[in-house]
User: What shape does this take?
Amino acid sequence: MASRLTKFGNDLYTGARSFDFVGKRKIWYAIAAVMVIASILIPVIKGGFNFSIEFRGGSQFQVTNVENTDTAKAQDALSSVVPRAVAHTTVVNGDGVRVQTDQLTEEQTRQVAAALAKAYDVPATEVASTFIGPSWGADVTRQSIQGIVVFLLLAFIAMALYFRTWKMSASAIVSLFHDLIITAGVYALVGFEVSPATMIGFLTILGYSLYDTVVVFDKVRENTKEEMELSRRTFGEAVNLAVNQTLVRSINTAVVAVLPVASILFIGAFALGADTLRDISLALLIGIVVGTYSTIFLAAPMYSQFREGEAAVKKHDAKVLSIRPKAAKAESVAVAAE
Assistant: This one.
């Protein structure tokens, strides 16, 4: 089995076996467009994202050392003080209940804390209350958006300077937007809270996706520079060869990254009830998978398309294609002579 995988990787690197990522780019573009449109429509249909209290502001109560974590008790306790209040209740760490609701007055906060202590039969000291104002939520939202925008801008500039072409940067940034939108769409679909930990996860997956893209583009630059001089392949074929040569590496990197993140999500979050881990691990899990996909199927084919319209590339491709019939005829003659 190992020898087969080794041979498979060697065949991809030498070009003996190849997947046509660049030639079939219209298919990948169509798939990416469908996923992006669906990811945009999901929050619209579902009425938006489930933002955490850090973004929307409000009052939060956390009851600890609870024997019965029935969340209905929390809603009843809140309704006894504020009849029409709507609460978002979750079980925390298996023996706690967290209650989030709209902004309450100081008196209402004291009454709700007392009602929760009574409902869960715990001392008043086991009920902690916090308040986050709307201005704080707006500030967190603004800083999160600014962080992502600054990251994308710096990534564009860094790649343009490193690869000495804005077309690679543009391809990479488009794929990053693709990753971000799809990950956000998945969050809206499953209804997980979008918290500051989620934003950290978003920035992390953008960094991972950019790293994977840089590795592939580095090989693309190496191949296209050589191919332009040796005239053995068209520009698109040289780009496609680079993607195939780094394919096994990209997949291996993704698998190694996904396994621990999946463990954090399914064991740490679902089994142990660590909500913060759930927020960041879902973003990482989806982002790693989508980021690997976008590098292979979107960024590299898009860069090839951007460059194929250049006069020098057109001239090179025409020269390669014009030589091939002669080379094929010469080869057939040589075979016949043998």
